[in-house]
Amino acid sequence: PFIPSNAERIRLWSRDPRVPALKERLRLSGNLRAAPGPDENLLDRPTGEALKEFQSLNGLSPDGVIGEKTLGALNLSTKQRIMRIELSMERWRALPRDLGERHLRVNIPDYRLEVFEQGELSLEMPVVVGRSERPTPTFSALLTFVEFSPYWYVPPTILAEDELPRIKEDRRYLEWRNFEIVSWDKGKPIAAENISWDSVTPATFPGMLRQKPGPRNPLGRVKFIFPNHHAVYIHDTPKRKLFDREDRSLSSGCIRIDRPEELATHLLMLQGGWDANSIDKAMKETTPLRVNLAAPVPVHLTYFTAWVDTQGRLQMRSDLYDLDSSMDAALKKETLRLKNLPLPGLAGPNLPVKSARLDQPGRAR
Q1: Are 31 and 54 in contact, with CB atoms under 8 Å apart?
Q2: I need a labelling partner for 157 at 20 to 30 A (CA). Which of 61, 240, 315, 338 fits?
Q3: How distant, in Å, are the alpha carbons of 33, 107, 250 from that of 130?
Q4: 229 is catalytic
Q5: pLDDT digits (tens, 9 = 90+) for 122-165
Q6: Active site residue 254
Q7: Is the pTM of this model over 0.90?
Q8: Which positions ≥6 away from 286 have C-beta within 8 Å?
């Protein structure tokens, strides 16, 4: 049943003519198992608990309140849900056959990082991913080193649009933000007082602007590097409150993690000389410290809007970057193309074929 939209939110113990449709919807999905009370228009306790369960299975805050996002998830049609399951199966097929006995997975729509050891989940934590205009890409790579107390090298776009205008407005901004300027080979410091700031443009900036390690560094206290042409990596962040948000598509493509010290400990615990105390010390250094992993660890950045969890429950997530529709269209187009190929020794183009495998959403292999 479709639940109409309304400016009014539906809360526990409130009456609303849409509640009967809500109860029927939760019964059909198997979330409402207890018998509700006699007042069909009342969002009673059993219905409220069923609604919270539904919200949890759809990556929403389980507050028992029907707002815009919960309503959208409730009104997702059976056809759309089946499509998400089918697309997730295609995405699984595109992953490497061997994910690695020890590996990291990030599911972008779920805002979550998981570490697996011999097929068992050993660590998980919430993450921040790229916003829609700067999405986090999907790919697999090898995590080869950890860098504690990293520098942050300001990207050209941020330099041009944000930092250079602020520096020109107030030279003290460099010191306040703990910035320094170094040569393009990162070897020699360039004294800010020797720069003619009035004539400097983004194109003539004399070197690289970088922020020293410290509490305000955007990369936080540690970053995890798996070399790739996307220039994407995993890192800490000083903005801890972001992890309290439901929607965490807030970065420029890199992945920010909630508990970086735990991930660092997990990755380095098998290497001599590293424990919680030495990692804490490395995170507080004033110069970067690179630690190569004895054995590279596979990292898989994935995009699953549907999957079955370890308890056998179907988990669904919103299509954060609107990739499902484009991938579905690409699959249908490729299937039609294959179906109409002339096959030697067989008459007629309309023969059943297996669906096309896609390595990336929206792109046929």
Answers
A1: yes
A2: 240
A3: 38, 12, 6
A4: no
A5: 999 999 999 999 999 999 999 999 999 999 999 898 899 999 99
A6: yes
A7: no
A8: 149, 212, 213, 214
